């Protein structure tokens, strides 16, 4: 169904226009102008699709994208430069260089939780690197998807960048095409389907998935500050954030103190929003019903649900163990289970037994504890004494490992993701050393050099 669009993009890429740096820079500027033109519509769409407030929408979606565009425009010439590297003595007379080459026609499949940010941020990398792109925004946020399509249509011709709306069938139709690169953000379950489809064409992929990201709080942490930063990172976007703390694992000696402060800050930050109806909705009824079933046990804060608006009050559940329903899957909603440990070594073993999470947060003022956790547990990325905030540093790569994904992006890493590094040896024609050709001395010479 989309073969014609794919072929037009392939033809446009092969024309070589997208490889010119001046073309890429102007494309990024045009993207920014188009977003600015539709900014009000975009904010209204987020409000309509899942009741996202303007301040939060700008902080987590639009402002972030502007920053990525500005950063890419500033550094793209440096990133795209051919890089000269060392050449060994065995290649005397030659030089070695790495050329930066776009992959070609790319596919970006986006999720619903940050529907604008997670559609356009990868696009910035694809355009910066000189590719064409087909975007597939999420069908679960249809109003936002419509505005994204309008932004793309204003900024680019279809043969360069296009936005395709639709559901599962659309995804499958697109995945049947021989793209040169696929960038997917979403669940691990669908990630496996994407990877299987890509394998048929040996297409490289980036998979940005999720997992149960822990917040480990030791007895040496600033407990009040830890509580403040954990509930902010957890309940922003109604908990529908891939790097939100999925559960808290706290030293038993400070558990009650942490719970006290988490309840205080949850009340302070989110109580009024929930009462007035300003708190964000769960994206659809299926997710709402799934989350509602997880609210069980010792609920020490929240727990209220509003089916009419698909809203769930920020909820903290104390005295949870690993058998609790909320610990069997990624929560991905405003429900925070709290578990306790008696030794950090045991906590590390427990977390290590879980599938590799996308993020991990450790709260401690003891550097040795933070170092032990970071070096002992496999995870994508994270923070010491904070949550989520590592996401907005363009100098840090963002991505998972194992069950939480593969590949990385943000800042230069987005450019690198959509770029093939082509290695070239430039050999001299002034001299042609005889020792490289089959002769009695050849073996002895190589053995001498490589012994």
From TrEMBL:
UniProt-listed GO biological process terms? aldehyde metabolic process
Q: Which SUPFAM superfamilies match?
A: ALDH-like
Keyword list (alphabetical) reads:
NAD, Oxidoreductase
Q: InterPro entries this protein is in?
A: Ald_DH/histidinol_DH (IPR016161), Ald_DH_C (IPR016163), Ald_DH_CS_CYS (IPR016160), Ald_DH_CS_GLU (IPR029510), Ald_DH_N (IPR016162), Aldehyde_DH_dom (IPR015590), Aldehyde_DH_NAD(P) (IPR012394)
The record's GO CC annotations read:
cytoplasm
Residue ranges constituting the Aldehyde dehydrogenase domain according to the UniProt record:
19-424
GO MF annotations, alphabetized: aldehyde dehydrogenase (NAD+) activity
Instruction: Provide the active-site residues from the annotation.
Output: 208, 242
Q: Which family does it belong to?
A: Belongs to the aldehyde dehydrogenase family.
What's the protein called, per UniProt? Aldehyde dehydrogenase
Q: Which organism is it from?
A: Salinicoccus hispanicus
